[in-house]
Amino acid sequence: MGLKRASRDLGLSHYSHTESAPQLRYTPIEQTVTPGDPVSLKCSAVGSPVPVITWTRDHQPLLPSHRTTVASFRTALGEVVSHVNLSAVTVREGGTYTCTAHNTHSSQAHSARLNVYGPPFVRAMPNVTSVAGEDVHLWCPAGGYPAPTITWRRGGDLLPSSLRQEVLGNGTLVVRNAGHEDAGRYSCVVTDRQGQTAASHTFLHVLKPPVIDNFILRRSLEEGQRTQLSCTVTEGDLPITINWLKDGRHLQHDPDVESKRTSEFSVVLVLKRLQEHHSGAYTCEAANAAAAVNKTATIRVKVSPKWVVEPSGGTALVGSTVVMDCNARGYPQPVVTWMKAPGEAARDFQPLVVDGVRSSQTPNGSLILQETKTSDAGWYLCRAANSVGKPISKVVQLTVHAPARVVTEGGRVTGHAGQVVTVTCEATGDHPLTLTWLRHHDPVSPGHTVRIRQSEAGGVVRAVLEMVSVTAADAGPYTCRATNPHGAHSQVFHVAVIEPPTAPSGVTVSEVTSRSAVVSWTLPQPATVTIQYKGMRGVKEESPGHGGNVSVGQWTASHVLTGLAPHHTYMVRLMAHNDLGVSQPSPTRIFTTTEEAPSGAPRDVRVAAGGPHSLLVTWRAPDHLLTHGTLRGYTIAVRRQNLQGHIIYISRPVIAKPGGVEQYEVRGLTPATLYEVAVRAFTRAGPGPLSSPRIVDSTSHDAPSCPPAGVSCRGSGRGGVRVWWSPPPTTCAHAAVAGYTITATPTSYAHAHANSRAWQVNTTNLEKNLDSLPPSANVSVTVTAFNDVGYSAPNYPVFCRTEDDAPGPPEAIRAVVTGPTTVLVTWSPPRPSTGVVLHYTLYSAKNDQVAVRDVVGVGGSEVTWRELSGLTQGSRVQVWVTATTAAGEGNASLKLTALPSPKSRYSPVAVGGGRTWRVGVGSGVTLGCRGLGSPPPTITWTRVGVTVQNSHLTQPLPGGDLHLTAVRETENYTCWVRNSVGEDSVTHQVVALTPPPPPTLALAHATHHTLNLTITPTGDGGAPILGYTVHHRVRAGEWVEVGVDRGGTGAVVRGLPCGAPHHLYLTAWNSQGTSPPSPVLLATTLGSPPGRPDPAQLVEVNSTCVTLRLYTWPEVGCPITHWKVEQSRDVSKGGWTSLHPHVTRDTSDLGVCDLTSSTWHLLRITAASTAGDTTVVYRVATKDSEGGFITAEWVQEVPPSVARSVDAWLDAHIVAGVVSALLLATAFIICVCVAVRGRKYGGYSRQGESVDQKGGSGEEDNANNCQLTRGGHVYSPAPTKKPRGSLASLKMQDEASDPYEICPYATFSVGNSEDTLEYELSQYVMTPRDCLAASLHPPPSDRHQPQQSPAYGQVPRQRPQSHYKEAEIAYISRGSRGGEYGSRPKSMPSGTQNAPTAAQDQQRAWPEDARKDTRGRHHRPKSRSRVDTPGGGQDSNTESNDASSPVQQPHHYHQHQHQQQTAVVAAAAAAAATAAAAGGRVAPHPLPPVRHARARSESSSSDTSSLTPPRPLHPPSAFSNSRELSEAECDRNVFKGENGRARDPASSSSGDVEESIKAELEELLHRYEHQQQREEQKKQQQEEKRRPAEKNPYTINV
To answer: What is the pTM assigned to this prediction?
Structure first.
């Protein structure tokens, strides 16, 4: 027995690394176990720091023992997990277990009880000490299970005995406000249901806690004084411990502090000489056994001021910051005051005024002086004082020095040539102060043209520089430098000598933007510059950016022109002028401003609904003054109203002429939805603002795209059905639903009226009662929603059964006198059937007396006769009959009168009642017939006038009934009852029900996103068609199904991609299953792939970049989804590099940069749409560094043939095709080898045993092994023991190391789709029986044979397939031995017959399991009885399986039957002709996933159960000496038989490579077939000579 882990997950958050309290994540729960069981309790917690988990049992620590282990560990996520494992639990291990997780923050606990079956017990209880006045809880640690009763006693008295006592539900005794009188011995007594008792005792001690008296303390204590504190405990039980603490700690050793105990309840603390460190909180702590209490008093000792930081003097420079410290301590805190002496002597100090800006004082007393001046120098005094002792003070000196500084600001000094120029310089600072003039870092020496004068006044030193008769050579910078011991400082003066100006030179225009440009120039001498600029064209004179004059001051070498107009060309020139005149203008420069994003939005934006999925947007360009450049295109922004985000951007080029109207249709929108639409224009510089206000419009309404949801129905009264449903989801309603259409269709014509086979009614409610339906009928119900535009698709049908009605009168009543006292009464069931007849009542009245009731057929038997006995000879007897259903007794039949008389002989009577039986093809039915007469009659059956013999299809039963094992077709069977007197007969009509034949699908018309189809039924298979399913897909896509109501003559497939080809086919279904598919219809929605762009509009270049205007790419009906841009170095080498694999539609200009100038570059651009792709290849030449082209034709389009030829052999499709062809050729060679080996080693046997001694042939063993593999286990080919080197020498065994089996084989396929090459290698398992059945009944081009279903509700399945056609290499075995075919499957009838005819071959078709698909067909009614489901279990579906589902329960075993090939081919041809006439194009099946209905063999009902393990596979007892034949050969023979010529089952493709591959494969196949046929003929001739020919009715010729 494993450990029991009964716990629950609390689901707390994950462990966090931040500091947190513990959190329990997993805790134990209460559980009950038996003694000896192992128990494991788990507790986990998280927290930070990591918590510690402890366990207790019954509030006592859980200690490890030989049966109890406690272990903990920590996971990688920081979770602490703790386990308590009890190896063999006993009743003593029962109790309350508590896990507690705790860390430094807090703790969390959880308790759960462990109950162990056993007698009661009580653990030893510890004594309890309580505090007087508090509540006491006495816990009784009792155990045992079932839980015993707990009682408390004290001194023999049962508790509670007062209001202060209470026993809780868990057995805990509570004593409230405990006192000394409650102390004593308490006993806990437990008693179980059998009267067993156990007890334990505890002693309760109640103690009184101590109480400390208040302290008496002096308030004013100064340093040097003495005091004491007395701690006296006035109440509390002794002994009492008293201690003193200071600031929460025990007293340290101090000679001035002494603690004296005056009594056992009093201690005095004496402070002999108070000092500063004696200040603090003193606590007296008193404790006894009950509690500990304390009381605190605070002592503050007053102390005189003392220096912490003593002040000191210092030195500072002018402008610096000075901090002078002064900090003192004491109690109370001393006050620090700063004072300053007014003169140079340290006396007459005056309080210093602190303004808080330049001077301030910190809280600790320090003085801060900022931006120090010379006036701040002097003597300072810092004083600290409080109310204790004398103040303390200190005098310090501050010295301030002034560094040299030039106070005259430097600048420009201007003078005319030949005149005197004077420059003055003044400086301040401490002496000695020196002024010096420098030029080019050298001192200026006085001379005859230069004089320097120096003077001093008021502490300021002045130096004057005079230059006489200045010339241009004297111009330049002059430096005045001042120095002293504390620093140096200088100023620069620029001397300019004015001369007549010259024209500015080196005029350049740079940094040109959309609104500004920088103009630079050079002047040899200072002069004012005037800039003149003017727009060349396109700028009106009244506009701000037309032009103007700008004056710039002297010494300026550049200027920024602002206020220009974007994307305009300007002329600019400059002139210099000064006091002496104006220069000539400079050369004219021309520049163009850059473009700017438009500042105006498009005008006249209008939006109109273009359809359910589109909006038509029109607009005009913005005002030309607001475009700021050449418009390159527009961006349309679309989003659903009231939805933030989810904006769709679409960029389009400028198409309309100036002033014209632009328009674009936005597609792919949701019907009946409000959209916000805005448009913005963009230039090369970027996009402008969106149109404002945004235009809001709605797309057109559309029919609902979803059927009503939650459709349910149930029978409601006789002939009534109640249906209810929910509206379609709002996301697919697309408009207000106007109403609903309910369609009810009986699943059988037995319940359908002649004029109307379906009931249909409209309503606006969400439920409806349908009346006047046939009683006791299975009804298929669908609901469609409609609005003003159209109808939705119907829901997946639901099925319900109407209630029974009272039956009509029985028919064909007869009364036959059979003797003097007996009368035989026979009748037929009432028609039409209104329900299951529970019994018949035969009424008989003798000579008009009271009628006697005789109940016939009790228990649901179908007896329709009764012989009345005990009558009186010659009396008149009147008889009549009534039928009874669940609804009650019906009307009486005709009344007949009989006169009993002696008869030795009478004519025979056939009883059983002729009926109409509607049976699925392949199902069995028993036809009832009994013969009564004298002499006893004989019974024979006839069909179409021919006597029915005992065979594998018809089996006469003892008593007269006829059992049909497998119904093939509609027939009348007549039971003849004959004797020597006469004859009588009764006829049964057997109607064979099949799935419908393939309907016809044609294209009515198409739009950009929808296909309107026409449906033409070609038959119903004998049962009402319950609906159609349209299967469609795009190329290489998944198949999508669309349900169509049974009464619809057309279907609309919506939501399809624009301009894309679609494969469509149609299936119909009834109660017997699904029809074969119609021929595939190839239809295309409106629209074409993108057109070819104009290279001049698409491509723009400069020296290093290529700009692609992808939005100029023309659309032809279908919008472009994205672009792909690739680059290559050389067209002759290929090797494309992807630059932008997915460029979306919101892209304006796309740049390909970092290119080499003056070089050719190869670009390949692909525009993708749902209709196809368009690719162009351009050779583009970049400009040179000066902006020129290296050739006149700088962009050249490469022809498609040249571009394709480069990468043709590198294309993935070609490579895949070549590889597939090689693999296929290899497979053919392997098949030849296997064939040769198969002839050489036709079989094997154990040593000393021949092949003929085996119990069966190789085909039977293979077939048996195949049956075993259908339970979900697939095995690869396993070999026999053959010589080394054989293909069959490969070996694979199953899990049980079973012997070998050879049933499965591999299949390779080379796919081909239209317009493109698509290749795929696929492998799946196929049995020899599959290929054999396919050769007997060749299917359509997709090679999938539909099968019949014996009972409606066995849902047809499908095998997932790709859209590729397949050429398969398969094993096909033929019997090579004559004689009786002893190896046929169990499902085949026995007997030896002549060579079969074509019809007999069709009847003897072997069964084939239907292809299975994991996808369920929800719109198919799925219900099976337990005998119909493989393995006897219920079918794995989610739909109902009740009696209301239209399932015909089989009463006998069923057999399979394939449809005739001729009927399939004829129906396919007719459907193809109809589709072609409707304007569509019919193509061969690209392997559509058709769900084929089939009948299941009774013999396999228990072998395929998913709950039964697969039986071991046994080796075949022999191999048939036959050659291998590929399924492609099977198909070739089939096509030859149909059309008289070979037909390639795969679609042909264009291209020389593919044609050559196909020719080679066909040649290999032809040679292989020819060689195999010759060898086979020789071998057959030799075998025929060796042994006599024997008839084999099941010989198969492929």
So the answer is: 0.48
